[in-house]
## 1
Amino acid sequence: MVFASTWVLVLVKDGLAALLACAVIVSTALSLYLLLLAVASLRRPRPASVRGTSATRFEILVPAHEEELVIGKLLDSVNELDYSRDLFGVHVITDHCSDQTASIARSLGATVYERSDPEPRGKAQSLNWLVTHLLDGDAGDAIDAFVVIDADSVVSPNFLREMALHVQSGAQIVQGLVQIDGAGTNVNSQLRALAYEFISHVRPLGRSALGLSAGLRGNGMCITRECAARYPWDPQSLTEDYELHGRLLAAGLRVAFAPAAIVSTQLPQTLAVARKQSERWESGRLDVMRHHVPALLRDGLRRRSWASIDGALELIIPPFSILAALTVVIFGLSLLSGIGPLIVVSAIAVVAQCLYTMRGLRLASTRNPHIYRALLFAPLFVLSRLWRYVVVLTRRGRVQWTPTVRTPPP
């Protein structure tokens, strides 16, 4: 009886050690991969310069739902673009709006389309309808590319010039740099802006330097007319940018990154709205992960395409705050286990996470000098994100799309 009990304890101990070893290997591999992207992001991108007059024709698409508080600031920035006004049009499609979005957009020179069909609704459906309408129009053949900008954003004056340079160099899909505007002194907003800096700045810079696909953010992106016609947005997806990127990678296409083409966007101003938005994003990302990761990994290994493998890894990697917390926990468990190799390897993961974090902090601090002070509250922020992630993983049924509640711009 004593022998049997000892045998069971040995099996349990060995099994736990094996699980811990797997966790250490996975967390370290992901942490080192993020560090690789951070190191690659240090490479200075080739500066864009305009030579002569660009002849690239753009159509700017702005999907809007109850955006009267923010649409004016966006269109003011669009009207100040340093690009020939004869070479771009501005189209606002209002999706079931009951406010003054349409009238404000018209007063600022945009062409407005009002949709009121009961179903379906949402950003993807609006964009698909508008792209088809414009391509089928009399001027459809003159369009070179479409640019998608969210209504709560502001674009840099050089935005279209930068996009034109990439399109003229052969890029079929281009993602601009999306930055959070107005984080202010609110600690939670600062930490959310920092988390976004990793996704929209550090990683795309690194991927661009390594010749990979920069990914899509759903805002500030440019897609040529041929790609827009061939690869419509999926109206059923909660995160149409992730879903579209998966299909583009499967087709062998890569997204170029234009860090000088800047789009500034707002964060939700209340925790309740931010929580709903975060849960929708994570639910949509997990749904895309289930559908695209196996195919991307299989295709990447078969064709030796690092872009496809990287696209799968981007979907697999959990939010940075959660991965960092899990890495620290795994390091602590390795210390408790007393297993030397696990301690060393998990310590490497912690160091990699620290260096990756320093790269994001360096970029974020140029716009938000208070970010280092906000790090004191990072543990509470991480616990909150962990709880929301657990809620998303354990939720039954599909999360329904809901529009983000807007607040007046600062």
## 2
Amino acid sequence: MVLTFGPTDPVGALGVQADLGCFAAMGCHGVSVVTSILIADTARVEDMQVIDSDWVADQARVLLEDMTVSAFKVGAVGSADNVAAIAEIMADYPDVPLILDPFLSALPDPDQEWEPVLMAMRELLVPQATLFMASAVELARFAESWRDTGGTDMLGADVAHLTGSGCEYVLITGTRLDAQELANTLFDSAGKLRQDAWRRLPGSFSGAGSTISGTVAALLANGMDVPEAVVEAQEFTHAALVNAHRLGMGRLTPDRYFWARDENNAPADTSSPPVDA
């Protein structure tokens, strides 16, 4: 059983719908707590309505009083109050893995000031996270809440700040190596564990990053350790993108059930998963 906190996406490319698909594909039952409601199609997210923090907390408490959860995923939460409510719940389950993937690049520019949200995540959720996942761009934005000065190795310093705060692992996605390749890099408190370079697939995708983090959460619930789960999740994401749906006139949507279709439709090569969050 895996519990995800995040927005609802009408398309199913992002948010809790994407997570539930990943959980099911990994053989896990998924349950969800809605943190916001998106108005979206395959081209864009037009608006977001944040759910009141009391409703977020009540959704989770009712579920957790009824069932046992083997992993948590926290996605975009929308407000500092929601961060605080979720962090209070997570503190009651310190032995359950927590995947924190709080940024969605598809979200519209918010009307509210995001600094309180970033500060709340930094202080309340990051210290409880088993794995924090963000793109290099998202990490740089997040790091503005703690950086004092610039430097030559800001990525390394930013990751060290996160792991020094209590987060066990950090996965930085989408670092550009050249015009054709991106890299995903996994760190722990000792530094870089591994870097995987993947060739870009043609097309524009929505939900690749969500697929990685949702799949990692399910694999941890199944008993894998983090490094192994990160590798497996990237391979699964690549296959889902190779078989992506053209559902509308916008971006392609990962097919998280490619494995359930005719074997002739399976991807020929699953060794090069991209990250195009």
## 3
Amino acid sequence: MHVEIPPPFDFGLTLERFKAFGPDPVNLWRDGAFRRVFAGRAAVLREAPGGVLVEPADPELAEPVRRFLGASFDLAAFDRFAAGDPVLARLAVELRGLRPALLPDPFEMLVTSVTAQQISLRAALAIRRRFVERYATAFDGVHPFPARAAIADVGPADLVELGFSRRKADYVVAVARSDVDLEALGKLPDDEIRAVLTALPGIGDWTVDWFLARHLGRPRAWAAGDLGLRKALAAFYLGGREPSIPEARALGERLGPHANLAAHYLLVGLRLLPRKVPRTFRGDSLSRRFAREDC
């Protein structure tokens, strides 16, 4: 079954982050194809002109796949905005077709963020891999993410055995056992989602920012406290000087409805184009704003 994705669309760039830090049993690359469970069905995605080929050819998979592959992002509007900034303009060209993938399961997104708090993404993935393999059974070669109800019956000590810190184990179990309707959060505005989630143990602004960005695809989502994003800002705009969180947040506000896409392009650019950041890539309009405006 062929599923169309709005152009521009680059299959490899869109799914690159799922192989950047090691094998991921939930988002699995194998033999040039991508595998994931959607709505209880294991699907194989392959690159195809104008979109992807999906197996099995079940029409009910089309919309979940489109959403996952970032079909809702308005890349044309982003390109027009990026044209006014030398850094983003170049990234938009070099990374043309990058559509940030959106995790479909809100519980998966929260657990993924909690495991990544204050450790490397490789270490977080290794812990999450053990978690997935313990609490979810693979079928057709790929694991679904563990169900929230299953983790609600798990004790924090069981997660500590898998490499979670005791605090993070407590957080994950608390989210699983909470009475928050995670599926309904998408109907709320950003500030209300933040209020609901930060009331849960271990969920702070950084985790909410990525929930808004990588689960809901909210256009203004911007993880100002993310170390990787601040390193990208340092490399591309500030001559190596890492901005403070307030400085990074101020820049995100200036990006307006293009902040989410800008963050992804900066992060992927830093990872894939590290040797293509000459001095002429800096000193642009946004970095001059850092210098002359009070952040």
## 4
Amino acid sequence: MPSRPRRELLPYLLLAPAIACELVVHVVPTLVGLFLSFHRVDEFNLRDWATSPGAGTGNYKTALDPGTSVGSALWSSFGTTLAFTALVVGLCWAIGMFAAVLLSQPFRGRALFRTLFLVPFALPAYVTAIGWRFMFDRDDGAVNHLLVDNLHVAHSHPFWLVGGHAFWATVVVSVWRLWPFAFLMLLAALTTVPQERYEAAALNGARPWAQFWHVTLPGIRRVNTLVLGVLVLWAFNEFTVPFVLLGSTPPQSATLVSTLVYREAFGTFQVGVAAATNVALAVLLFVVGLLWLARRRSVDA
């Protein structure tokens, strides 16, 4: 039997690998990014970034000032990102809720549909974006083949990955990838709503829409809030889909903040400005997260 000191150390030993991974993956890069945001790091001193000259708050002023080219691009991409986030979250929630309500009812083949609906979420984001990029091809893509050649919705093959269409293409791919998460979480939450509430509402003459509004939504409120919060974070920080779909220099209509930061860091090598932009966005998301948690606690109370 192990001695008492060994038993007391066992929990810490078991946690040590996870703590080490957390330090390497999150804490250390965060501290490095914070250091870079206060230093003038560019293509001339990138190799010796640890000894780069200090910039004070100059990087933040450059990044956030709408009068500079970097600041103007940032605020433009910030508005695009907000619109992108609102559309992706709203559509993912609506499709996920519809599918969850539909598949919460027993019918033949329900298990098969549940499995198929989870396929987009199970695929890696890179694989999903590559597949959709081929589908959006102007001449040989499945999208134009269906809409133009079969359904005759348009008279010519549009370019889906350039111009204004690129924004909507990115929204479609992101929704297709993320809505199964909302479906999975909401379907699990629906199983916890007592059936007696629906029966009581039906006896009182409540229609299906009234039952959904007054029974379903209040019954899954906590899970619903969690789903919306996670979707907002994922959509706002989306990088893989727009990067693989549109490349490192997407059209202005589809330039999200994440791709803009990447372009500043690895395209123009303004690493200090890119780090300052990232830190500012992290602070913004942190404040929004705190407000969201405070509101959730007040509602639950």
